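Example S7 (structure tokens).
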């Protein structure tokens, strides 16, 4: 790939891990984006070792040695995972209509960049599509058509992804009134009419609303479910998460991303149809919805308990309908 080949802008998000950020910049040097945005959160006051590490990440911006317009956003104070990443992406997409987003511990395969670029262009005006993901968690035998280069998923995966301003504007950090925008029946449908799936995501949104978890990606899932949009998700895995130990986002599990390999280019057209089987596998194995649904029972707010009762009623009605269909003449 030659210098200047990647016309889509890239946002690189770093914090206090210069080793990982150096590796990411090495991958970016190969792709040579013409416009590179770099966001680095501020040091934590409670961690004296942060200051030097954060400054080292900032200093690495001077190592960009290909023809490139570099813009930086350096926070003077630590915003944390939720507000920090949200501020970075908002800044990026205020300046660009669309682009590719990578956190410092995500190492992309070279084909990740043309994959994202092609689909950002292909679905630029398609309101059915929420985002582009280069991360694949699902083994091929659990995909509907693994020979296709990508599929559509309800949940966006953010270990190497891309988005448009038109979809990011639906993201909001605070979810205090999440049930007003996503009622039980809609969430039931968005999660494949799965009792454990609806309870899992309802509990996640409730924990965010109560301030029990500092994150931003659950709110991204919420936005995609509220709007009913889907994410184009690669059927092979184009990214490696090298930083789960000590990372600010969810640690790795036994059901994380598949081995990295390149996607076949150019990308053939794929029907915009949800891959229910792949989503079911992700819900069961990666998100471990059965266990998380049990944990949801520990949330005590009265409004959430009402939500649980509604979802259970929907599950009973679905089971009754299935039973009638099974035994009808």
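Recovered sequence:
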């Amino acid at each position: 790939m030659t210098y200047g080949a990647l016309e889509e802008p890239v946002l690189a998000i770093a914090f206090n891990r210069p080793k990982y950020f150096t590796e990411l910049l090495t991958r970016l040097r190969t792709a040579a984006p013409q416009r590179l945005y770099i966001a680095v959160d501020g040091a934590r006051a409670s961690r004296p070792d942060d200051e030097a590490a954060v400054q080292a990440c900032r200093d690495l911006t001077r190592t960009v040695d290909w023809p490139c317009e570099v813009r930086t956003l350096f926070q003077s104070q630590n915003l944390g995972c939720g507000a920090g990443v949200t501020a970075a992406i908002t800044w990026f997409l205020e300046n660009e209509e669309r682009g590719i987003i990578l956190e410092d511990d995500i190492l992309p395969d070279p084909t990740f960049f043309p994959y994202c670029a092609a689909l950002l262009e292909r679905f630029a005006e398609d309101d059915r599509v929420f985002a582009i993901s280069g991360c694949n968690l699902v083994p091929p035998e659990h995909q509907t058509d693994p020979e296709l280069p990508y599929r559509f998923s309800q949940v966006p995966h953010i270990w190497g992804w891309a988005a448009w301003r038109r979809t990011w504007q639906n993201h909001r950090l605070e979810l205090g009134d999440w049930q007003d925008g996503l009622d039980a029946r809609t969430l039931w449908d968005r999660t494949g009419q799965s009792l454990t799936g609806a309870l899992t995501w309802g509990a996640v949104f409730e924990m965010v609303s109560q301030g029990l978890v500092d994150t931003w990606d659950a709110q991204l899932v919420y936005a995609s479910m509220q709007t009913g949009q889907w994410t184009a998700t690669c059927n092979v895995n184009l990214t490696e998460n090298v930083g789960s130990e000590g990372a600010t986002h969810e640690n790795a599990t036994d059901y994380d991303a598949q081995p990295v390999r390149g996607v076949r280019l150019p990308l053939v057209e794929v029907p915009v149809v949800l891959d229910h089987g792949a989503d079911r596998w992700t819900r069961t194995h990666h998100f471990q919805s059965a266990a998380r649904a049990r944990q949801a029972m520990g949330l005590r707010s009265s409004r959430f308990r009402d939500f649980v009762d509604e979802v259970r009623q929907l599950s009973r009605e679905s089971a009754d309908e299935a039973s009638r269909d099974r035994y009808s003449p």
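Notes on this example. The beta strands are 10-14, 35-40, 69-74, 98-103, 106-108, 129-133, 150-153, 161-164, 230-234, 239-241.
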